[in-house]
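Chapter summary example.
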Amino acid sequence: MAEAHQAVAFQFTITPDGVDLQLSRQALGQICHSGLRSWKNRFSRMKNGVLRGVYPASPSSWLFVVIVILATLHAQSDPSMGLIAKIQDHLPLSLSLTLSANGQTMVSALVFSTLLWLSVISALRFCLKVLLSYHRWMFEQHGRISNITKVWVTLVRLLSSRKPLLYSYQTSLPHLPVPPIKDTLDRYLESIRPLRSPADFERVSRLAAEFESSLGNRLQRYLKLKALWATNYVSDWWEEYIYLRGRNPIMVNSNYYGMDYLYVTPTANQAARAGNTITALLLYRRKVNREELKPVRTVIPLCAAQCERMFNTTRAPGEETDVLQHWEDSEYVAVYHKGRFYRLWVYLTGRLLSPREIQYQIQRILDDPSPPQPGEEKLGALTAGNRIPWARIRKQYFSSGVNKRSLDLIEKAAFFVTLDDEEEGMRGDDPAGNLDRYAKSLLHGKCYDRWFDKSFSVVIFKNGKTGLNAEHSWADAPTVAHLWENEILHRTISHCRLNYLLMDFPLSVFSQVQVQVSDSLAVARALADDVDCHVFPFQEFGKGRIKKLKISPDAFIQLALQLAYYRNRGGFCLTYEASMTRLFRDGRTETVRSCSNESCDFVLALENGKGREECCKLFRKAAEKHQNLYRLAMTGSGIDRHLFCLYVVSKYLGVDSPFLKEVLSEPWRLSTSQTPIQQLELFDLVNHPEFVSLGGGFGPVSNVEFFFF
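The structure predicted for these 709 residues follows.
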């Protein structure tokens, strides 16, 4: 490992004349600049903390309050109604002895002004929180806005008129409410009615009634108690039990992918695209750290908590549960190419390297002819296999020494980059088939050339196409889509130091590690080979034409999926659609049960040859029902997260519920989702449709069906 000496800041040699100390000025300079950059980031976080703390006011408003109070005092008027005099009576004796009467009055006025300023800020924040808790606007028809909602919009705009930071609204967002247990059970029974026989539905109804009258209310009280002190009664349990405690491979089962432009490739130069992509992602990280990104909004702001762990984050395996590890900063990215791992420094003397400089380093990696060390090439398969073997190998062979240092360099990197030696995209004589292979490559690759534990891994293909694979526990797809949309908009192409990250296994443990690598790779390949993936662009019409018919595009797609499933399978099934709950603090997702009585009525009418007018009427009714279900899920009145948390509480209490056990064991045969595009609205897809992206996708959640759009 001759390259490792480049990272040593000093060396010493013991000689008969004493100790010969050799300093590396370049290395010490880098350490100094790294420390300065770290302190700048700390100062920036402190400053942003103050700005967030006083939002929607500003720090300068304190000076305004002080000037007004002092001016009124100078005019022989007391705006405090005697409070300033009382504060003056309680000043410390040392101040009373050292200050004149006017000085004491001045200090008392400053204290009163500060308290008044803080009280006004608290009142404004409380008002903003109350306003952000209003969700009736979501249920009003387009073009028929009530006067209450119009007043509400005006007040929200007034209180949020000052330019916010990324996290300015966090403490003003409402907490996710715990819905009444009766409402949840009624909605659940309604959702399964078209899927059960009358006798089976009656059986489940009795279970639900028994649960509500006995154990349900007890569990509900515990859940309400948690909601009082937790910012979100769902998210921490959802992250732990749905994601981190899963012992199956996260590749395919949990991780998801994002794709590049469909028709446009900014450059076919792999190193140039890599340099530009890495730079764009690091500039985005800088905006996140400085909170310069605008909070994502619908009508009101959405929770931005998921941005906090976007970079410098990894999922560390454990035997019982994994752990998300996050570091404040990282000055390098980890790169993988042809079986070798590299550490790529992206800062020099405290500044971010340019795309051209990073391109030069990437090109050196691409041109590096050195072969992988024994065991290095397929080491990433450990992150693709089952979690328990990976946790045991990590604990036994990667907890100390050179292996730990090498693993730390991957896990503490800003993100992971794979320089793939394949060409992907919509190209050649079989563009549709190539799109399928492109998606599968991003979803699982070769099962060892991605580091699936990293918050996200960027893949740069040989022909300049790019994409990413994201770990799911730290954030949901819309957050990563916002990052990725920002990245692919950076299309500036540019036609330096390189440190290698090497894996070095002691011979005494190499064979045991290699055996586990092979086992994990076999598990991952079996999983990858079992995935069928088909990706296609639909060009007949888009959401614009659907909206002209006054139909929700989401409802349109969901009804089309119900019709397709019925024609394919001859029946209906439990259908999952992901909805966000980021209108609330620390919100993540809720389930929309898309298969409803109304959607089934429409499908059956269409298949049974009913008249056009009747089918259209049933279609609109089903679409309106779906939209209402979606709105209920977004505003905290969903079904599945509430029942999930009741189930968790029952497990903590050590009690069994036949009803909850049946609910949580029901299989989702059809799982759907959607990735929002044009969140940034920085380009015009109407006039430039060639810049459309296919978004991304997840792996299947069952062995039967899966759709993602």
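To summarize the output: The radius of gyration is 29 Å.
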